[in-house]
Amino acid sequence: MSGSRLDESTSRRSGFRFAELLKVQGKLALREPYALFGGLALPAILLAVFGFIGQANPGNVGSTGLTIIEVWTPTILVLSMIFISVSLPNTLVRDREIGWLRRVSTTPLHPSRLLAAQLIIDLILAAAAILIVILEGALVFGASLHVQILPFAVSLLLAIVELFALGLVLVALMPTQTVAQPVSGVVTFGLMFLSGLWVNPAQVGDPLRTIMYYSPSGAAVKAVLDSAFNGDPSYAALLTMAVYTVIFGFIAIRYFRWE
Amino acid sequence: MVSAATAVTVEHLVKKYGRLVAVNDLSLSMHEGEIFGIIGPNGAGKTTTVECISGLRAPDSGSIAVYGLSPQKDRDRMREFVGVQLQESALPPRLRVGEAVRLFASFYSNPIDPDQLLESLGIKQFAGASFKSLSGGQKQRLSIALALVGNPKLAILDELTTGLDPEARRETWGLIERMRDRGVTVILVTHFMDEAEKLCDRLALINHGIVIALDTPEAIAARAGGSRVRFVPSQPVDEQTLRAIPGVNGIERKERYVTVTGTGDLAGSLINALAAIGVRVSEIDARTGNLEDAFIKLTRDDALTVGKESQR
Questions:
Q1: Is the pTM of this model over 0.90?
Q2: CATH architecture of the domain covering B225-288
Q3: ipTM strictly over 0.95?
Q4: B86 contacts in chain A (CB < 8 Å)
């Protein structure tokens, strides 16, 4: 028999190892660094920009009682989460479009594990971003944080869950990468504006201020800001995020497709 | 004759996409350890059929059993031993060959060693190459590797050699034959007749969602009317004399040419019979029927029948 090496190859017993999947997704995240750039590099640079603006313009922003770097540190924290979440369609819509998720679904692995691995990688990125931005803001540019750990953690966590859910809505609704890219771009700019990157809600009047406070990213910024400096979480902002999370989660689950 | 156990049974399969009937009451069965080919024109329902077998699509009605399991109800158990190579399925562009195969190996409880698999497929030297940098042939070999790494009992290969150069196609054929030698049942969807003729133990010809022929490639080829001989006789021969020659089914005349269609050793019996009555033949052009002829004939006949039915 010409046989084959396949005959001789030994079969080895090994159950499904999530670690292998996590490792591969992690490597891909490093090779396609949308999330890495938007989630880590860009916020670090933006924070530096505001840091230098702050040094050139000491004093408080409006009636907030906070310096420029202090006001914008929470905004940039939220910004980093926005960038990480809108990078979700970059990989997942593509993976669905090229038939990768379908290909995976013919194996004993359900593609939901692939999604889970991707979300875990992004969660790790978000945690790294939080660490970098807080350290940079506090140590390099002297933002004086008076953090109440529990409300601060809850605000950040809720912001992450809310914005990731929004990212998954995009993954669910966007049919192709070609459509997903411009739509994600528009959503990103909308969220950036509402988060107060260009004009802080403290500096604008109603109704814009109200709109910003009750927007997905504006509410996140307000919750993080209040718990970072005032030690007093804004329950309205937390509730707003919770409501958005439920809505986004419902849409994402309702319309999610693997093929 | 070795009696082969049944690997796959499809009975009265129906699958519609909206008003389009893709598969219409299709039945067939496959033996364990054979290469079973599915051929048919575009849109005949080939891919839909294998997608139902692999559990990717739910049939509207009918039943499917794969080694005794239902692709819908026993999906999880079935996925352990069914390897699938999908038409038009790509990998993330920056995923590397070795990573992809090791990743897939980790999904199965009893996988083949990824390194040895890559070596036997001749792509071990590309283990570090990213998917987007691979050539068409290398991508197909990787696709086969992913279908095989779980050590399947049944491999479903859809349009496996489309886009490959002739050499890569021959190599791929060799791989499929070696799979069968290992006892793997192979379902091969193809629109290359030479591929079906060369590789498949049995073939199902599908058109308009039903099986219009199911047999060995040779037997299906014979249905095309077998051979055809065109010649010029040294003197006119009447129709009755020609009809009396064994194997002759049809006669056509065009100018000085006579074309005879039929079965068996047509040219041989023709020359002998005509020589016996003193007729010499020249300018002989003989052709044996092949699968391609059969394919065209059978699908055309089918189209005519369908056409007549719809006129009623």
A1: no
A2: 2-Layer Sandwich (3.30)
A3: no
A4: 99, 102-103, 106
